[in-house]
Amino acid sequence: MRKLKITEMNRLTVEEFKEAEKLPLVVILDEVRSLHNIGAVFRTSDAFLVNRIYLCGITATPPHPEMHKTALGAENTVDWTYVKHTQEAVDELHKEGYTVLAIEQCEGSTLLNDLVLDKDKKYAIVMGNEVKGVQQEVVNSCDGCIEIPQYGTKHSLNVSVTAGIVLWEFANKLMQFRLG
Q1: What is the extent of the structural domain holding 67?
Q2: What is the rounded CA–CA span in Å between residue 76 and residue 3?
Q3: CATH number of the domain within which 51 lies
């Protein structure tokens, strides 16, 4: 096998990405402190045609050289909005008809592998602070919680790893609706 060159991958240009039909999926970062994690979420969001990222509270905004190290330019392709309070983003998205789901370990949470999506709905997922997770008041206003099954001794994953797993699952299911 031969590795493909970048020029052989038929990736979208920045302009083509901006014009492309995005998935009905929004990411909300609730008080994420690491610039590298934020950049990684931008890069993953670009890979999976996420519609927008909400950067909330202490979550830094582009441009920033440390963020760029992991985003590699995705901070220039994926649309983003800053809001001071995460609850404002949740309320706004509810008004726009989104189903908002916290990625958090909660009573009654849905395991990611059991997630069923509706082709007629739009989704927003909230990912929380590296230490405290999603704020409880934000969890309270969400339509549900999604949990990644884990089988080892640790009880959490890094937020950028979580984003990769969850965005892949959502994108995979939402793309199936497009493909028929």
Answers
A1: 21-147+155-179
A2: 27
A3: 3.40.1280.10
- pLDDT value at residue 161: 98
Asked whether the beta carbons of 147 and 125 are under 8 A apart, the reply is no
Residue 175 pLDDT > 90: yes
Give yes or no for a contact between 121 and 1, defined as CB atoms under 8 angstroms apart: no
Looking at the 3D structure of the chain, how many domains does it have?
1
User: Looking at residues 93-104, what average pLDDT do you find?
Assistant: 98
User: Pairing state of beta strands 110-111 and 144-147?
Assistant: parallel
Q: Would you mind telling me the total number of residues written for the chain in this entry?
A: 180
Identify the CA nearest to 133 among candidates 30, 28, 27.
30
Dihedral sign (CA 66, 34, 46, 168): positive
Residue-wise pLDDT tens digits, 28-51: 999 999 999 999 999 999 999 999
Q: Please report the sign of the dihedral spanned by the C-alpha atoms of residue 162, residue 176, residue 49, residue 81.
A: negative
Q: Which amino acid is at 140?
A: N
Is there a contact between 143 and 100 (Cβ–Cβ < 8 Å)? Answer: yes
Let me know: does 145 contact 104? Beta carbons within 8 Å.
yes
pLDDT at 18 over 90: yes
Residue 109 lies in a domain: yes
Tokens of 94: 């509810």
Q: At what angle do helices 35-47 and 159-179 cross, to 10 degrees?
A: 10
